[in-house]
Amino acid sequence: QVRIVNVDSEIIKELRRSGISKEMRSLESSDWMVLAEIDKKIIGASGVGGLFNLTSIQILKEIEGIGLGGLLQREMINESKKRGYSFITGMIDPANKQSMSLHDGFGFKTIFRIHYSPEIIQDVIIFTFNRRGKIVKSFLGIFNNILGMSILACLLKIFKTMFPKIINYNEKKIPNPDVKHIIKNFEKIQNHPIT
To answer: Mean of the pLDDT values across residues 118-141?
Structure first.
């Protein structure tokens, strides 16, 4: 069974009981989410929240590989459209080929890659619904060059404590952006494909 819910304290308790938010606490900061359940136990969740409509998706390890990620992604995109969103974004470790393939299959485009630190690399992706979404995509594209990335690195360092509100990030440890590392390891994304 799949249901769409606004996130409140009861949903957060359900996420914790199921173990889903143990793997990805950021789901608890979502504004709303799509839940997949079996016998009233959450087995998968996909949420949207934050200033940039950041998406999160998590499936119980023992359920992976049966197509649940695709179902949650499709429902999340459809609900975002119904709610009048112009765009949704995501942050993916490029080494997570399964997640990259899932998002690519739905038409997400990579805008830029950021090397926060030696341990954390993230591709910032976007799915646009209309002209306003394409404008946001173009704006975010300014970080796909060395000057834009340098500015972003400094902003991330300065506003680190605001991560949870800006990008819907609620993990146990907020990454500490290493400005030198971010600039030194800049990679330009060509043609915005998810690879």
So the answer is: 93
